[in-house]
Amino acid sequence: MNKITKYIDALPLSEAEKAALPDTSLQAVHEALDADHHAFVREDDSPLGSVKSRLEHSWPDSLAGNQLIKDDEGRTQLNAMPKAKRSSMFPDPWRTNPVGRFWDRLRGRDVTPRYLSRLTKEEQESEQKWRTVGTIRRYILLLLTLAQTVVATWYMKTILPYQGWALINPADMVGQNLWISFMQLLPLHAANRDPDPFRGPFLLGFGRFLDRADGLPAAADGAR
């Protein structure tokens, strides 16, 4: 007696049903027990096809209430949890047409979005609750984005010309020498204060080159 015959003898079947089962391999046994005749790609999945049949013989009461379901590949599995019913939380879309919004507001007209018109009144009330939550979340994200932009701009003003307070005259920008514009972008004091042993001398030499190209005397170190 091999393992296959031992397995067949352990099944809760009658002697006639056991004798009808093939004893060549376990896969053949499960394929014979499979009433739906599943065709699995993997041989190791063949026992899943006989799950329902074996449960019917061992514990017939366990199949009540649709306890067994099939996955996407047709394999039998236990229905261990209820189906997920998720409510959509995406906020109500903003209408980007200001003329249309003003005209609807002037007429006292409330335009229902198309996705809500397809739902019942009860479904609309359920959806609207979560869409309100999504709208609040959107405004919170908007405020956080604006806040970090303000903070970043506040700290960036320390490296802007005139510390970011004085306005630049466009006429002065047009009539200004190109080399002077480069000098404003790479001031000499930045080279003197740069601790990097390679970047500092490079900025210093580039600043002196711009001075000579503009006809100015080369500034001494630390003069600016």
TrEMBL record:
Keywords in alphabetical order? Glycosyltransferase, Membrane, Transferase, Transmembrane, Transmembrane helix
Q: Does the keyword Membrane apply?
A: yes
Entry GO MF terms: glycosyltransferase activity
List its EC numbers. Answer: 2.4.1.-
Say which enzyme class the record assigns. transferase
- Give the transmembrane ranges: 139-156
Name the record gives this protein: Glucans biosynthesis glucosyltransferase H
Q: What organism is listed for this UniProt entry?
A: Raoultella planticola
Q: Which gene encodes it?
A: mdoH_1
